[in-house]
Specification:
Elements lengths: L3 E5 L4 H13 L3 E6 L19 E5 L5 H11 L3 E4 L6 H6 L2 H23 L3 H6 L1 E7 L24 H20 L3 E6 L1 E3 L8 H10 L4 E4 L5 E6 H14 L5 E4 L4 E3 H15 L4 E2 L4 E2 L6 E4 L14 H7 L7 H14 L1 H9 L12
Parallel strand pairs: 1-2, 1-4, 2-3, 4-5, 5-6, 6-10, 7-9, 8-14
Antiparallel strand pairs: 9-11, 12-13
Helix pairs in contact: 1-8, 2-4, 4-6, 7-9, 9-11
Bound molecules: nicotinamide-adenine-dinucleotide (NAD).
The site of nicotinamide-adenine-dinucleotide has 31 residues, from helix 1, helix 4, strand 5 and strand 7.
Length: 360
Amino acid sequence: MPYRILVTGGAGFIGSAVIRHLIESTSCEVANVDKLTYAGNLESLTPATDSERYHFYKVDICNAVALSSVFDEFKPDAVMHLAAESHVDRSIDGPAEFIETNIVGTYCLLEATRRYWYGLPKTDKDAFRFHHISTDEVYGDLEGAVELFTETTPYAPSSPYSASKASSDHLVRAWQRTYGLPVLITNCSNNYGPYHFPEKLIPHVILNALSGKPLPVYGDGSQIRDWLYVEDHARALLAVLSKGKVGETYNIGGHNEKRNLEVVETICELLDKLVPLTAEGDRGQTHTYKNLITFVADRPGHDRRYAIDASKIQRELGWAPQETFESGIRKTVQWYLDNPDWWQRVLSGEYQLGRLGGQL
Ligand code: NAD
């Protein structure tokens, strides 16, 4: 396992889970390189931020000079690259930032890494790893009911988000092939769990339900996604970083294919049990959160189905998810019920105050 790990996007949903895991379960030194966009929230990192092994650099990955300073100061043994613009709807409304961060930013990071890596002594150079974290959305839409994405499925991205991630995957492979940079790539399915920004489907539905607002479902809700609990993803990433073979791609998934409507209905059923609505009306019908479900116009270019074949990582690295969808979604709903301080500060914008920290 590398000892000094530079994580980009460590204040985001998955990056914060990775850093919490690294600080709690390993003895690694961790540098979090994050620009703190709207999606970055340092409050997702407590209590890891109290550790002396945690270091924060408020840096944009498109800033080549600042990135080089971080490399020279922190001297990483590995990079885990998670910084990205990640929300498909935002990429449809405004693709420019997706091109800038996901493509240009990945290029800048690869070049900063290459310059630093060239200067390392031979043994450190051989042990160094650049781990690029990507998505199953690069493979596009699965039309058949039985087909699964494997590591050799051709790329066919549909949205500006997935096209920008596909581009970044190609850049990373090219830097290995051309310059010999020791890279690892992972493509993962939809994540869910604690500290998920409320614009994404699962937290959006939980929080809207709790405040009695409509629960929007795109189209007829029949789009299928594979769901993975975020802490299972963090464990998979550490398995790949410590045991993965250089130049290889590993698909990561939860074996949990669900229709979007099914996901929303499951959340409603959990809330019906955990925070029951009072009986209403003269016929004594019981309210259910399902009454809040509202079908809205579908997203343009919306992929119908994603499903991952994660057998390679299981076979070669011994990783398998610990949570089923049923156990993970229960934990997630309970987490939002137990942590109103976190999400209320996100909804009010207060989480963006006090962001003056950082070393560069
Ligand atoms: P997120 O949007 O929650 O977090 C992204 C983080 O990157 C934020 O902290 C943000 O401040 C930071 N960032 C954005 N632009 C930056 C820049 N120019 N410089 C430095 N930092 C910047 O994203 P996430 O859901 O945690 O996803 C992390 C990675 O995993 C992304 O690369 C994403 O494509 C990939 N991924 C996500 C999912 C998912 O379901 N969320 C699934 C598979 C893969």
